[in-house]
Here is the input.
Amino acid sequence: MAEESILSVLMQGVFVQNLILIQFLGLCPFIGVTKDTKSSAGMSLAVIFVVTMASVATYLIYTFLLDPMGLQFLRIISFIVVIASLVQLVEFVLRKMSPAIYRSLGIYLPLITTNCAVLGSVLLNIRAGYDFAQSVTFGLAAGIGFTIVLLIMAGLRERSSFVHVHSSVKGVPHAFFFATLLSMAFVNYFEVIPLGG
Amino acid sequence: MDFINVIIQSVAVLGGLGFAIGIMLIAASRIFHVETDPLVEEVLEALPGANCGACGYAGCSTFAEAVVSEDAPIDGCPVGGFELAQQIGGILGKEVSQGEKQYPVVRCKGGVNCVNRFDYVGVQDCNAVMMLSEGEKGCSYGCMGRGTCVRACPFGAITIGEDRLPHINKNLCTSCGLCIESCPNDILVFGKESEKVHVRCRSHDKPKAVKAVCTTGCIGCKICEKNCPEDAIKVNNFLAEIDQEKCTACGICVEKCPQGTIEMKETGEKTKKSTKQSADSSETAEADAG
Here is the structure.
């Protein structure tokens, strides 16, 4: 796996191992913030940002601290700590340096501190044995894949609010139908993009 | 001995990591400290802090900023209500006037007074009843009394009385309007606190048709229109409508109405007490007031 080209890693992250529809991570924002495109775009931006940053930080922690000491089993707990504090740090910096970005990310930045999508994608990095460049690419790609799915879902749900459905199906149950169909579409990327080819 | 080593190493690594990150965050919060308006923080303290977004802003902090910069109204937080608005007004040194409260008005007095066309057995929900050839009631405008509004109300302010009609407990009502949205037959509308007299019917059917199914429906006889000293009532398409701007709540129309369709608010409260549940709640409300 480690000899994969950057492009291959990118495609892996965006489609083949899509965070939401293939790995089923980050389902909370997938249903929670996709009521309108604006909030899902904000959430997506924050996820791209944090996942990429977290890939860098966790790669460094794992390769230079945990792996040499033989403490690989500490990766989950230490990654949680690292991600949480990284998000906090980024929030401080953004607030000072770029209030505009800070405002546009808004409440989503602190929210994804505890999001499994972020932790999941950095753990996948470790499991795949990626090097530094590949890790960062995979993190970025995972964020982009997350964004694509969130925006498609938000678009579908915005349109579907005009459809007349029975009140018992309205809202979230209706969204689950879309999620099913969307997920089937993404599963088929396994066929289109040859794995490890 | 080996596993003890591992334990010591784990504790050291995680402890060290935590310590280093802690120091880093403290340093960062010092270095990147942003001077914020103390007013914003004070307002933020006063807010409920649920980040529910009901105000239309992304969270309590953005709402607080908007209030201080006067983009958002002081009473913009529906969770905190008027008390919170006063509190924020105190912080910002502004007067807050309370807007007149609005309550849902039940525009039907049919209920048990209105005949059923058939016996409905099925899902006990107004929407479901409505799907069956526009409901079981003889009157297509009438309240079906299946309590869709009761379930829509998050505050438990609505009960269905023995007369099969919704009753609104004003002490619990927060004027959120969810019941009005939920009603499939548009029975509920907002009426202001000061608007005392209401026509409790919305049927535009011809008098004969109304009389055939309902003992309390408006038959468009125009007695109210003729007797109103303020010229506030107009019968339009077999239904009396009150111009609330002109109405002085003299009560003449209430007395004269042969069907008892027009009601003064006090009368409405009396009927409310006839049901057990709402009688309890209005008693507690009186105790609160006293």
About this structure: Chain A touches chain B at residues 61, 65-66, 69-71, 74, 77-78, 81-82, 85, 88-89, 92-93, 95-97, 103, 106-107, 167 (CB under 8 Å). The CA atoms of residues 77 and 131 of chain A lie 21 Å apart. Residues 37-69 of chain A form the longest helix (33 residues). Chain A is about 75% helix and 0% strand.
